[in-house]
C-alpha cells in the first residue's frame, strides 16, 4: 500500500535469526482431505535447512480440528464447542506424530506446546512459557505450538492461531512471523469471490485500510485474513515483520528468509528494537523497586546486561514473579524497568548474593538473573 521504511522490509527477513512460522488448517489438510503429509514433509525440510543456517524456528500449527474431522469421518465442521474440542483432541495426535516423524528424518526433536491466549496474558504463566520455549529453542528443539482447544471456547469458535502466532512472536521477540495460508497473500478483495482481486505486496501493519479488505474467514480454519492482519499489527508491537504467503509455493519458507519478494509483507512502523522496548515498557504496572549498586547501574546502562542478584542492595514493594519492577541507583534515580524472575521475599534473600548461591539459599533456581536483559528496558 505504501513504500516501506529502511530496514523493515524484505531485508529484515534475510537478517532474521528467530522466526515464527504459522501454518493454517486449509493448507495442512489439503482443503479438508486429511493431513497433507507430503506438504508437511516439505515445510519440515525447509525448517531443517534454516536450522542448519543458524535460524531458530518456532512452529505454530493449526489443523487439529480439521484433521480430527477427517479421522472421525465428519463432513462438515461442527458448530458445537464440545464437538470441536473432541475433534481437536483426536486430530492433535495425528498432527504431532506427523511433525515428529518428519523432523526425525533430519535428526531433530520436536516439542508439543499447547497454549491459550490467557496463558500469555497472565504474567506468571507468560514467564513460565517464555522460559520453557527459550530453553527448547536453545537446545535446538523445534516447538510445535497449537491452541489448547480442550479448555478454550472463543478461540476454537473463531479459529485464531494467527493471534497465537503473534503472541508467540512477541513472547520470543522473534524477528519475523510467517503466516502460511492457501492464498498467495492478502488481496484487495477475497480472491475466492472476486477474480479481479489484486495482491497487496507490502504495507504497514497498522494501516487501517488493511482491515477493511481482509473480510471474513475460510471454511476450515475460520480466522480468514482479518485475524492475519490483526496478528501482523500485534507482532509489529515487538518489532516483528509479518508475511502472509502461500504455503503451496515451493520452498516458500527458505525463499522468504532469503529475502525473496513473495506474499504480502506487513512491517512495523518503528525500528524493531525501539518497538520491542516500547512494547515492554508499556506492558505493566510497576509493583516494586530494586536498589542497585553502582556496578550494576553501569552494566545495565552501558552493556545492556541482565540484572544479577549480586548487584542489588535493597528491595521494596509487594511484587510477585513476573511483575514489572523499577530499578533505581543509589540516589533513587530510576535506571531501568523490567519483569522480575523472583517474588519480593525471594528477591530480599537473594539481594547481594552471587547467582551460584541461589540454589543453596532458596532450594531451587528459577533463573540465574533477577531480570533477564530481554525483559529489561533502560530508561
Ligand atoms: N482480502 C483477502 N485476501 C485473501 N484472502 C482472503 C481475503 N479475504 C478473505 N480471504 C479468505 O481467507 C482465507 C484464508 O483464511 P483461513 O481459511 O482462515 O486460512 P488459514 O487456515 O490459513 O488460517 C482464504 O482462503 C480466502 O478465501
Ligand atoms: N487450534 C485450532 C486452530 C484453528 C485455527 O486457528 O485455524 P486457522 O485459522 O486455519 O489457523 C486447530 O488446530 O484446529
UniProtKB/TrEMBL annotation:
PROSITE patterns on file: GLUTAMATE_5_KINASE, PUA
CDD domains the UniProt entry points to: AAK_G5K_ProB, PUA_G5K
Catalytic reaction(s) noted: L-glutamate + ATP = L-glutamyl 5-phosphate + ADP
Residues engaged in binding substrate: 62, 149, 161
Domain of life: Bacteria
SUPFAM superfamilies, sorted: Carbamate kinase-like, PUA domain-like
Protein role: Catalyzes the transfer of a phosphate group to glutamate to form L-glutamate 5-phosphate.
Name the UniProt record assigns to this protein: Glutamate 5-kinase
Organism from which the protein derives: Halomonas citrativorans
Gene name in the database record: proB
